Every structure is written in C-alpha cells, then in structure tokens.
Amino acid sequence: MKFAVLVFPGSNCDIDCFKAVEETIGEPVDYVWHTATDLSAYDCILVPGGFSYGDYLRCGAISQFAPVMAEVAKAAEQGKYILGICNGFQILTEARLLPGALLRNGSMKFRCHDVVLTVTNNKTPFTLDYAEGEEIIIPIAHGEGNYYCDEATLEQMKANDQIVFQYGDNPNGSLHDIAGISNERGNVVGMMPHPERAVNELLGSTDGKKMFTSILKAWRDQHDAANTR
Amino acid sequence: MIKATVYVTIKESVLDPQGATVQGALHSLGFNEVESVRIGKYMEIELDTDNRAEAEERLKVMCEKLLANTVVENYRFELEG
Fold first, then answer.
1. Domain at A3-228: CATH code
2. A93 interface with B at CB cutoff 8 Å
3. 3-state secondary structure A44-80
4. With contact defined as beta carbons under 8 Å apart, do B75 and B7 qualify?
5. What is the ipTM of this complex?
6. What percent of chain A has pLDDT over 90?
7. Residue B74: which domain range?
8. What is the average pLDDT across A144-173?
C-alpha cells in the first residue's frame, strides 16, 4: 500500500505524518509537492496540518486551488482513502470534499493540549481497529477548529453516520462536539486532532496508531476481495 | 480601470467569536450602548477593464470561488470608475 503526504508551502506536520506511516505500519510513503499533477500511484493521501499559504484569507482557502488538489478530488471520486488532519481538514472543507467549515475557536485562543475523543463511527476505513464508542487521547493544536455546518447538513451527516470523532470536553465550540467527519461514501475523513502525534509512548499517547493500522486493514480487505473475485 | 470594493461578512446564523470578544472589550471601556459587533473583511480590487457588466460578472465568480466561503460567509461588492 502506497501513501502520499502532501506538502504545501507552510505545511508543518508533513514530517510527523510521514514518520507515523513508517513507524506504525512501515508501508512505502512519499512526500508529494503541491504542484504535483498525478497521484495515480497512491492508495492513501494524507493532507497534513500546518499553515498552508500562511492561512491567508481563510485557512485552506488558497490551498484548495493548488494543482495537486484536482488530483485529490479525482482520487476521492475513485474511492481512494484521503485523510485531512487539522489544516488538512480545513483544506478538504474549503475544497468541498467534506461538508461544513472550520471557524475561529469560540474562546479565541489557540488550543494546544491532549483531548479525549470518542470514536463515534468505527466503520470508516480509518477507524476499523477502534471499538465503537472507544475513548482515545489525541492532541489538538489549532486556533480555527470550531466546526460549523447548517442544521440540514448536520441532520444528513447524523443519518449517514458521517460523524467520526466527537470531543469529550469541547475545546473550541464545535457544533455537536464534532472533532472529525467523513464524506457520504466514507473514504474521505477530516479531523482537527493529530493522530500522527500520538503513535509512540514517547509522545504521550499511542492512541493514534490504530488510525494507520485501520487504513492498511481496509486497503488489504478491499484488495483481497478483489483478488478472490 | 474599475475599482471594486468587496465586503465579506459572516452569515447571521453563524457565531462570530471575534465580534463577541470585541463587543466585550467595548463594554469594558464603558461603551455600554454596543449591542452587537460583527467582524468581516474589506477588500479593494483594481480591475484592468472598462466593461462594467463583465467586471461584475467576473467579481461574482471571484467571490464564489475564493474571496468568500459561502458555507459561512456572505459577500457584496461595489464598483467605482
């Protein structure tokens, strides 16, 4: 299974994502620059955190038009696995690959600490290895992680099981305590917390590991099914 | 040359933590008559065209595509020149 970690000017969690893939599942992983125009070699695309394009105008507003994003949209269409973390989540909402938007934290503060998350949906390719309702500890680090969508969209997401993670103690004012969501099909997930920063005891938590093992398992299941057909 | 002024504002239904904080600061300065504050963006854009209709058309696309996130923001613009 081949991973791409996208790199925009201003990304700063790209190395963490790369190392997390190496350390948790040891599958091949490449850095892919924002100007790339072909992602066909990759099975999973990680859109990392940071401050792409300086967060100018709005977080993710400018990145959504980077050349590589047309390829990300194509990959999403093909059903490939796409995970946006923090700024990556903001980029995916700006690109309309995920519903809603991320607003300034209710407290106006940049929040940087561990949070307790509930795995609300363990049926996505990114959360298979967690138990439903499992509580995990993952760090957050953001100033604009206050998830918002209109009421109709929220109802639709609830009905489709698109709410993937919820905060125990809401750190930013997010609607419905939402920390992470998926698209309708479930192959695109965005989340504000950083699972790539919770993959080793030295980092304070290993609860993020299962996200990476889940993706690999989902990919293997899909491929085994294809091979025995 | 046409000069466009674009205003991007947060939708009524969406909370504006920045505005609420500034409102609190104004209150603590004694401006108790302040009932609400909403903070938005103001942009000045110079366009190398004299065709007003076309400028309007293209500005609308700029707003929809990039300048505003219509999930949470409204926009309006004025043209001069």
1. 3.40.50.880
2. yes
3. EEEECCECHHHHCCCCCCCHHHCHHHHHHHHHHHCCC
4. yes
5. 0.88
6. 97
7. 2-80
8. 97
